Each structure stands twice: as structure tokens, then as C-alpha cells.
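Budget justification aside, the reviewers requested a transparent look at the raw inputs and outputs of the sequence design task funded under Objective 1. We therefore reproduce one unedited record. The lines immediately below are the C-alpha cells for a 87-residue chain.
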């Protein structure tokens, strides 16, 4: 799994069904509020990783944005609409 702070990269993954040139297809993309970074970040899971992101001391308000099984979720469409900005 990878934590990504760059919205354009996440947007490209969401818009291209988990595909990003040079990387394997993602299996899930989540957003969450990082208590360490003090802002929203995104986590990308690859097929070899568990795809569940749970709330913890470090992760607040996790939202599944896209998965290879279900595609773009309602939350993912909302994320694209607000262009990755805080809600």
C-alpha cells in the first residue's frame, strides 16, 4: 500500500479505473484525514494488500473511493467533484 499526498496522481487513478502508467492496477483507493499530516491524504492498495482501512488514532474518517471489484463509489464521485479538497 502507498500513502499519496498528491491529488493529481489520485485523480488520475480514479479517472483511469485504478490504472497509472508504469504501475500495476490498484485494487482499492481510500481517502482519510491523517492526524499525523493534519490534512486529507489518500491510500492506494495494490492486489497483494488487504483493502480495508480502519479508523484508528492516526486515521480518521476513512472513505472507500474506488475498488477493482466495484469501481468508482459515491464517495469517489464526490471526491472528483470537489477536486480532492477538504469537505
Amino acid at each position: 500500500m502507498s500513502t499519496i499526498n498528491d491529488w493529481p496522481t489520485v485523480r488520475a487513478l480514479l479517472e483511469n479505473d485504478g490504472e497509472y502508467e508504469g504501475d500495476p492496477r490498484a485494487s482499492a483507493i481510500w481517502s482519510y484525514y491523517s492526524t499525523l499530516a493534519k490534512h486529507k491524504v489518500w491510500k492506494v492498495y495494490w492486489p497483494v494488500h488487504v483493502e480495508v482501512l480502519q479508523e484508528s488514532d492516526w486515521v480518521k474518517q476513512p472513505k472507500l473511493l474506488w475498488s477493482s471489484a466495484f469501481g468508482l463509489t459515491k464517495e469517489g464521485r464526490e471526491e472528483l467533484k470537489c477536486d480532492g479538497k477538504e469537505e
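The longest helix spans residues 7-15. Residues 2-81 form one domain. Computational costs for records of this kind are itemized in the attached budget.
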